[in-house]
Amino acid sequence: MSGYGQFCPVARASEIFAERWTPLILREIRTDHHHFSEILKGLHRVSPSVLGQRLRSLERVGVIETRPNPSGRGSTYHLTEAGTQLAEVIQALGVWGQRWLEVGPEHLDPDVLMWQVFKHLDPTRLPAARRVVRFELHGVKRRYWLILQREDPDLCYSNPGFDTDLVVRAGVEALVRVYLGQWSLADAVRCGQVETEGSRELGRGMAEWFPRSGFAPHAQPVSFDGSTKSFVLRSA
């Protein structure tokens, strides 16, 4: 028998919410990612078949609903009233995780980092004319090209064929902690964990266009220990 077999509301709700991938699916939909491909990219390691199963399950219990795709074939996915209320749990879970859980090596996926950076770019902070930033992450063979353009930003995993205006060389963990709001970009540069080459204007303005997580206000600040090359929580 699946589930807990209990009438307790916590048990019944957990049968839905605690299923693998479900919280992350709701995270994506609540941040306006309504297409199947967008949700799939946001989850990274889930298979299309498993995502399809989870979406059908959530629709069946009334957490999400499908609507016609206004831009073409297929459907889009949206939270119902019940799903919107459940999404508040996602927010609380993220705040708790940001406040109490540490980042470990197993969490440092460069693809996830770059996707989050791209999806959380603020168009109002981007240049009107196209600027191209290539990210070279320490120990990562893949290169990433971030197209900074107010009207049409993009993330490329192969050379888009445009001139590169700025190269950012950094450790994955350093950029993750900057994105999470645990560490300032200025400190990362000062410690040599983030280096830039190319457009001085774009490099100096990186703190302006490089996004922060929505959970950044709840971050525990860290410092970089140069002797051990590791991050430590700052004492209160």
Description:
- It is a single chain.
- This protein is of the alpha+beta class and 236 residues long.
- It is 39% helix and 19% strand.
- The strands form three sheets. It has a five-stranded mixed beta sheet. It has a two-stranded antiparallel sheet with strand order 1-2. Strands 8-9 form a two-stranded antiparallel ribbon.
- A hairpin with a 4-residue loop joins strand 8 and strand 9.
- The longest helix is centred in the middle third of the chain and has 20 residues.
How does the major sheet shape up? 5 strands, mixed
Helix content: 25-40%
Which structural class is indicated by helix and strand composition? alpha+beta
Number of strands: 9
Counted by DSSP, the helix tally is: 10
Helix and strand sequence:
HHHHEEHHEEEEHHEHHEE
Query: How many angstroms separate the termini?
Result: 48 Å
On the 0 to 100 scale, the average pLDDT is 94
- Poorly predicted runs: none
Shape from CA axes? globular
What percentage of the residues does DSSP assign to strands (E)?
15-25%
For the biggest β-sheet, the strand order reads: 5-4-3-6-7
In brief, what are we looking at here?
By secondary structure, the protein is α+β, with helices and mostly antiparallel strands. It contains ten helices and nine strands. The longest helix has 20 residues, at 81-100.
List strands and helices in order, with pairings:
Layout: H1 9-17, H2 22-30, H3 36-43, H4 48-60, E1 64-68, E2 75-79, H5 81-100, H6 110-119, E3 131-137, E4 143-148, E5 154-156, E6 166-170, H7 172-180, H8 185-190, E7 194-198, H9 200-204, H10 206-209, E8 222-225, E9 230-233
